[in-house]
Amino acid sequence: MKTQSFLIATVFTIVFTSCDYWGVIYFYNDSDTELFASMAYGYMPPKSLSSYPDTLLPDADEESYYKIFTKVPAHTSRDLLCELGGGNMDNNYLIDNYISVDTVCVFVISPDTFSTYGYVRMAKENHILARYDLSKKDLKQLDARIHYPPTPAMQNMKMYPSYQQILNNISK
User: Fold this and answer.
1) What's this model's pTM, rounded to 2 decimal places?
2) What does the alpha-carbon distance between residue 114 and residue 3 come to, in Å, rounded to a whole number?
3) Which of 42, 85, 103, 114 would be 51's cystine partner, CB 3.0–4.6 Å?
4) In what order do the strands lie in the sheet with 130-135?
């Protein structure tokens, strides 16, 4: 009986410690409305926008934006924004080695903006709720968890509009 229990414990240990670990960057929608979010981290669409310092939305037709943005329901505890490579590595290692740029841009957009302006006009005129320009250090500090509206932990990070302006816009 002890041998059998030991064998079962050994098998479980091997199985659970040998599983690939995939680093992820999550987006938390703490607002009262559904949002669209996307992250530019150095690869091209459909999985990522162009990379920093190009902080504009890419040219796309009205039918293509859904490939670029993730729809995030209101009060979503988390939604996958980016999946990085794995192999039993922690997020800090993955951020350092799988993100090919020093700064990533996270775009947050209202679905109402899409329906009012359409993607082409919205992108051309830069109608966004927020754009976070996050360094790898910022991502690590946030433990790869990005929030809208921004949390106090994000207040000194680069964003447009500013941290306080975003909070003021939400409270209107």
Assistant:
1) 0.76
2) 62
3) 42
4) 70-72, 35-40, 103-109, 130-135, 158-160
Interval 1-17: pLDDT, tens = 555 443 333 333 333 33
The tens digit of pLDDT for each residue in 72-129 reads 889 987 777 766 665 556 778 878 877 777 888 888 999 998 889 888 888 888 889 9
Which DSSP string corresponds to 87-100? SS--HHHHHHHH--
Cα separation values, 84 from 39, 80, 171, Å: 12, 11, 35
Q: Which residue has the tokens 């996270």?
A: 106
User: Residue holding tokens 């490939």?
Assistant: 67
**The tokens of 53 are what?**
């310092």
